[in-house]
Specification:
Elements: E1 14-24, E2 30-31, H1 37-51, E3 63-67, E4 79-83, E5 88-92, H2 95-108, E6 124-133, E7 139-145, H3 153-165, E8 170-174, E9 176-177, E10 180-181, H4 190-193, E11 197-198, E12 216-217, H5 222-233, E13 238-245, H6 250-255, H7 284-300, E14 305-309, H8 316-320, H9 322-330, H10 339-353, E15 357-361, E16 373-376, H11 380-388, E17 392-395, H12 398-401, H13 424-429, E18 442-449, H14 457-464, H15 467-477, H16 482-498
Parallel strand pairs: 2-3, 3-5, 7-8, 7-18, 8-13, 13-14, 14-15, 15-16, 16-17, 17-18
Antiparallel strand pairs: 1-6, 4-5, 4-6, 9-10, 11-12
Helix pairs in contact: 1-2, 3-5
C-alpha cells in the first residue's frame, strides 16, 4: 500500500515528493493577496472543524497564496504547490486553480483533517512536495437525479463538497422528470404544488406491478437553489440545471394539462419507472410555457450550459394529435416524429438568444443545430459521429458512467438499473474518443446517479463511491494506471470514511457493506 502522502486522487499531472514535512499549527499564518481571499477563506472553512486552526492572515505568513496571470501554462484550473519545511506556496493563474490546490492540501494532511468534528492529538503535517497540476478535461461532471427521489439541500451541498475534494467541476442537477418537479417557477406554482408530489413509487424495475403505497414529495425554494449556486462556485463547481423536455414531462402536465396533446385530459404524476409516453404538445401556448420556465431557470442558474433533456421522447401522442399533425405539415416536416428535432431546435434557439448554450442527451446529434452541446450515452461511436457534425460533446457512456448500474453481478448486490454491470475498473478505463480532425470538441466526461432505486443518502453514497473517485482520476489526469489508482484508493478511503461516506466495495469480491435503514427523503 502506498504511503498516505502519495495517495492523491485524482493523480496530479506532475508530482515529486521530497524529504521532510511542514506542520500546520496555531502559529501558522497565511500570506494572502486580496484576489486570493476567497480561496483562503475556503481553506479556513474546510480545516477549522477538525483542526481548530485559525490560520489568520499575515504579511509574512509561511503559507503563501500567489495569483499571477503570467502563469498561463496552468490555465484557468491548474495550480502549482510547493511544500518545504519552512513554507507552503500555492500558486495559480486564476482563482479557480487555488481552489483545486486547496483540495490537494487537504489530501496531503492526515485523513482526520476531513472530519466534521475536532480531532485532538493529531499533528497536522504535510509532506514536502513539488506539484504542477493541470486537468486534461474542462468538463468533469456528476449528475445527481433529485427528480425521481428528492434529496434535501443539505445532501446536495454535501455532494458539492465531495465533488470538490475530487476536483470535479460540474454538478448537473436533474430537477424535473415524469415522477417529480423540484424547482419552483413563480409563473406556474402548480409545478411544485402538484408536480412535486406523487402518490407512490414503483418497487422494482420498469414493468413491475408492485408499488409501495407511500407518497413521495419535495421541492426546493428559489433561495435554496440560488445559495447552492454560490456555495458550489466558491468551491470551483458550476451547477448546470436540467429541465427535461419534450418527454419526461408527466409531472408538469399533471399540473398544467393544457400544455399536453389532448384537451381536457387529466393526469397524475407518474408513479412508474421507465419511459412515459406523455409528452409536451407543440401548440404555441406550450412553447410560451417552456420559454417562461426557462427564463426563470436562467435567473437562478448563471451556468453557460442549460440542459433541456431531449431524449427518450416517444412520438405516439404527436402521431395521434390533430394539432401536432397540422404543425408538422405547416413546418414542412416529413412526419410527426420529426417534431422532436424541430422542438429542441426551437427551444435551443431561445437559449442561444439569451446567451446560453443548449445542452441535451443525444445519440448522434442528428436533427440538432451544431450549437447544441451533447451528452452522448448509448454508444462510443455516437460520440464520434456527433463530433463530426460539429457538436461539442461530453462523454457519458452508460456502460462506464451510469453509476446506478450494479457494481457486480452478485445476487446480494442492491437493486440497480437493469442494463448490466459497471464495475470500478470500467469507470476508470473510460476515455472518450480524442479525434483532432473533426469540427467538434470533447469537453470532458460525466458520471450519472439516477435515483429510481436510490431513495436516500446511504444508497447514493454506495452507488457513487468509490466509482466517482475512478472517474475523477481519469478525467483530471487522463492516463493514470489502474494498479496505481487501486493502490492510491486503498489509502484514499480513509478520507471518505472521515467524511462519513458509506462507500461500496473496492473489489468485486469484497463483502457488500451493510447500509443503515433509509427512507425516501
Amino acid at each position: 500500500m502506498p504511503a498516505p502522502r502519495s495517495a492523491l486522487i485524482p493523480l496530479p499531472t506532475r508530482v515529486a515528493f521530497r524529504p521532510g514535512h511542514f506542520t500546520l499549527d496555531a502559529t501558522t499564518t497565511l500570506r494572502v493577496p486580496h484576489a486570493a481571499a476567497p480561496a483562503a477563506a475556503l481553506l479556513r472553512t474546510l480545516l477549522a472543524p477538525a483542526t481548530g486552526l485559525p490560520l489568520p492572515a499575515s504579511p509574512d505568513g509561511p503559507f503563501v497564496f500567489t495569483l499571477d496571470p503570467r502563469l498561463s501554462g496552468l490555465g484557468e484550473e491548474g495550480y502549482g504547490l510547493t511544500v518545504s519545511p519552512e513554507a507552503i506556496v500555492l500558486r495559480a493563474a486564476h482563482p479557480t486553480g487555488l481552489l483545486h490546490g486547496i483540495q490537494t492540501v487537504r489530501q496531503l494532511l492526515p485523513p482526520e483533517a476531513l472530519a466534521p468534528e475536532p480531532q485532538p492529538g493529531v499533528t497536522w503535517q504535510l509532506p514536502c512536495v513539488e506539484i504542477t497540476d493541470v486537468p486534461r478535461h474542462a468538463w468533469r461532471g456528476f449528475l445527481l437525479d433529485v427528480a425521481r427521489h428528492f434529496q434535501p439541500m443539505s445532501q446536495v451541498r454535501r455532494y458539492v463538497d465531495l465533488m470538490a475534494l475530487h476536483k470535479l467541476n460540474v454538478l448537473q442537477l436533474h430537477l424535473t422528470d415524469d415522477q417529480g418537479w423540484r424547482m419552483p417557477i413563480a409563473a406556474y406554482p402548480r409545478l411544485t404544488e402538484v408536480g412535486g408530489r406523487r402518490a407512490e413509487s414503483m418497487v422494482g424495475p420498469a414493468g413491475s406491478r408492485v408499488f409501495d403505497g407511500v407518497p413521495h414529495e419535495g421541492a426546493y425554494t428559489r433561495r435554496e437553489l440560488t445559495e447552492l449556486v454560490a456555495y458550489a462556485a466558491a468551491r470551483g463547481i458550476t451547477v448546470v440545471p436540467e429541465i427535461d423536455m419534450p418527454g419526461h414531462m408527466r409531472a408538469a402536465l399533471a399540473a398544467y394539462p393544457e400544455f399536453g396533446n389532448f384537451p381536457g385530459r387529466r393526469l397524475d404524476v407518474w408513479t412508474h419507472w421507465g419511459v412515459c409516453e406523455t409528452v409536451l404538445g407543440v401548440q404555441e401556448p406550450a412553447f410560451g410555457f417552456v420559454r417562461t420556465v426557462l427564463d426563470e431557470v436562467l435567473d437562478v442558474f448563471p451556468s453557460p450550459h442549460v440542459h433541456i433533456g431531449g431524449d427518450e421522447c416517444p412520438t405516439t401522442e404527436w402521431a395521434a394529435s390533430p394539432v401536432a399533425r397540422s404543425r408538422a405539415a405547416a413546418e414542412g416536416l416529413a412526419d410527426t416524429a420529426a417534431l422532436h428535432g424541430w422542438f429542441l431546435g426551437r427551444v435551443g434557439g431561445h437559449l442561444i438568444e439569451r446567451g446560453r448554450i443548449p445542452t441535451a442527451w443525444a445519440e448522434t446529434g442528428e436533427g440538432l443545430p451544431a450549437r447544441f452541446t451533447l451528452l452522448t450515452w448509448r454508444d462510443p461511436e455516437h460520440t464520434r459521429i456527433a463530433l463530426k457534425r460539429g457538436h461539442d460533446v461530453i462523454s457519458a457512456q452508460h456502460q462506464a458512467t451510469y453509476l446506478d448500474y450494479a457494481q457486480s453481478a452478485r445476487p446480494e448486490e442492491p437493486q440497480g438499473q437493469p442494463g448490466g454491470v459497471v464495475d470500478l475498473r470500467a469507470v476508470h478505463a473510460h476515455t472518450p474518443p480524442d479525434d483532432t480532425d473533426v469540427p467538434g470538441r470533447v469537453l470532458g466526461v460525466q458520471a450519472q446517479v439516477w435515483t429510481e432505486f436510490a431513495p436516500g443518502a446511504d444508497h447514493i453514497d454506495y452507488l457513487a463511491f468509490p466509482r466517482l473517485c475512478a472517474l475523477a482520476d481519469r478525467a483530471w489526469h487522463g492516463s493514470p494506471s489502474w494498479p496505481g489508482f487501486r493502490g492510491r484508493l486503498a489509502t484514499h478511503v480513509a478520507r471518505l470514511a472521515a467524511l462519513g461516506v458509506r462507500y461500496g466495495p473496492l473489489d468485486p469480491h469484497d463483502p457488500i457493506p451493510q447500509r443503515s435503514g433509509e427512507e425516501p427523503s
